[in-house]
Amino acid sequence: xxxxxxxxxxxxxxxxxxxxxxxxxxxxxxxxxxxxxxxxxxxxxxxxxxxxxxxxxxxxxxxxxxxxxxxxxxxxxxxxxxxxxxxxxxxxxxxxxxxxxxxxxxxxxxxxxxxxxxxxxxxxxxxxxxxxxxxxxxxxxxxxxxxxxxxxxxxxxxxxxxxxxxxxxxxxxxxxxxxxxxxxxxxxxxxxxxxxxxxxxxxxxxxxxxxxxxxxxxxxxxxxxxxxxxxxxxxxxxxxxxxxxxxxxxxxxxxxxxxxxxxxxxxxxxxxxxxxxxxxxxxxxxxxxxxxxxxxxxxxxxxxxxxxxxxxxxxxxxxxxxxxxxxxxxxxxxxxxxxxxxxxxxxxxxxxxxxxxxxxxxxxxxxxxxxxxxxxxxxxxxxxxxxxxxxxxxxxxxxxxxxxxxxxxxxxxxxxxxxxxxxxxxxxxxxxxxxxxxxxxxxxxxxxxxxxxxxxxxxxxxxxxxxxxxxxxxxxxxxxxxxxxxxxxxxxxxxxxxxxxxxxxxxxxxxxxxxxxxxxxxxxxxxxxxxxxxxxxxxxxxxxxxxxxxxxxxxxxxxxxxxxxxxxxxxxxxxxxxxxxxxxxxxxxxxxxxxxxxxxxxxxxxxxxxxxxxxxxxxxxxxxxxxxxxxxxxxxxxxxxxxxxxxxxxxxxxxxxxxxxxxxxxxxxxxxxxxxxxxxxxxxxxxxxxxxxxxxxxxxxxxxxxxxxxxxxxxxxxxxxxxxxxxxxxxxxxxxxxxxxxxxxxxxxxxxxxxxxxxxxxxxxxxxxxxxxxxxxxx
Length: 779
Prior knowledge:
InterPro entries: Beta-lactam/transpept-like, Glyco_trans_51, Glycosyltr_51/Transpeptidase, Lysozyme-like_dom_sf, PBP_transglycosylase, PCN-bd_Tpept. Residues 680-717, 760-779 are annotated as: Disordered. The chain is of the alpha+beta class. The protein is built from 24 helices and 18 strands. Helix 5 (141-154) runs antiparallel to helix 6 (158-165), helix 16 (414-423) runs parallel beside helix 18 (484-494) and helix 16 packs across helix 19.
């Protein structure tokens, strides 16, 4: 028996013998007979035929991976994504030139032989023996189709791909059996159609339609002779004959195909010669794959939709099932994205925060009552080029959906505390002393009978933003001015558990998946949240107490053959988080924030709006979260790495000594919501009457909220002012707000121990609704 050459590998005779053995075996398979066990070749053949009989009889054509198209809620394309760029088309939609060219160069006897071409086998054996190697193959188009089936089934698993392409006798035998089955069931035209749809044409293009678009920017049905010959020639070696990277080699290969077509009579020699003289005529299109191609800055929303498919059990019980669905593609996903809102969000972000700024911004808009995500954007572009300030981290969503660990929402969490208090029976006129600085009250009840206690030796303390902020305050003014000490006193009064429960009902959870800490400090927004979470929570106020889980997908269809099959999609679950009265109370409180409080720069003019500012300790983050009755949105600005404090900083070309929630996020919110709501109805809130803490002139509370006592006589004004100051514990020129039961922190008079008739405090005669002395009034 010939020995191996010194350089390794088989000699030409050994290669020929091996190839001949496989080929004879193929003939034996077709004839349904077993070869005699004669020598090593015979034994191998005998064992292989036995294995042939044990191969399962049925080969199912795989569901070919195709493009998935993602649409907005108007049906406009956002992006196309795919693991393999392929668009399956019928044979009638493929140029006849392509059909003839691929048969001519890959399997000239395709219409004359069965699954295996014995003449082709013998010709290849002779050619390979002469060349001293495997210069020519003998696989038919049917056998190649089976091989591609195996590769398609392997997906992106490198081990399975290697098994599907390994040059072993066992694989060839399995390939042969399935080729026989396919020939019997499909017929020649269907085999050719499947082959042209599955084959790889290089440059990320799978199937002739994708290849036609990639190289010529046209449909496969419109390909001319020379274009068809070029594509047919690529198939044998997509890297070697790549016309984009090696025009000369690709041209030579194209001309070989043209000549072969002439030899077979598919075209005349004259037609072949004329086509050979023409340039390749490439008109390439760049691959448009993935969320990086999304329009209107919707890359992050596109990625969120992908995450939904990969994580929601409605798309498959297991992670593997969902991944298979996504990778196979062929999906048309209609989303909730509103193009007007999305465009407005991105325009506002671009105007206010540059992608190269030391901090970033993220914004999300949702629809109250449905949970639909209408827009999602950020200043850092979607992509993998970090040198271009790109990122694939979606700053708007939770960590398990492709986001970061979240950001402290600061005072935007206070309305959740207020909602828990009002829902639990606290009046919105509730007052607390609210000093500028104080230790956290202790003890405070928590969930499950637990109690939070401050350290008696080194008590944790907090203070308000400015020293001028000291109470007493009622809920309206404390919310408008975002008074920290008020809200800590409020949560200490009602307990931590009602706040945690209310947060849960409103869908408020930490972005990193951890449980919310049970400490009074949560009232100040110390737990990291995402913009989507906060926007959805505030939508609860807008929908008068109904919380709806956020959704991004409205419908999904999957292409199966030539039909579209509808798939189930996740639905928003809406539940009552609070009574309508509580929600309306919060809308009344938060409307005051944008009218008279810290959020005035976020106001929408004549359109009713409500919201809350938030700025964290050390200014690592600033927020504005707000809503109208028909849209809710959240804007966060900060350093995703939690390292850059927003002091002495320039954002969007504007320098800031200190960043506040109403100063940077507020205008972003205002502009994005203005554009998103343009042309849409402007309904009003269901407001309720919340008496101002000092709007009680008949009880001598200074001059806030009522008519001045100008119609009364001088005596009435003087006495009313004096008593107002005494009973409110304030100063003559208006110190910290007081009331009739508790002296103001800044008052200069002690709390009186006597009581006076209400009409005496009003003033004498026709003395208006209250005295004109500024007793306790805060402006």
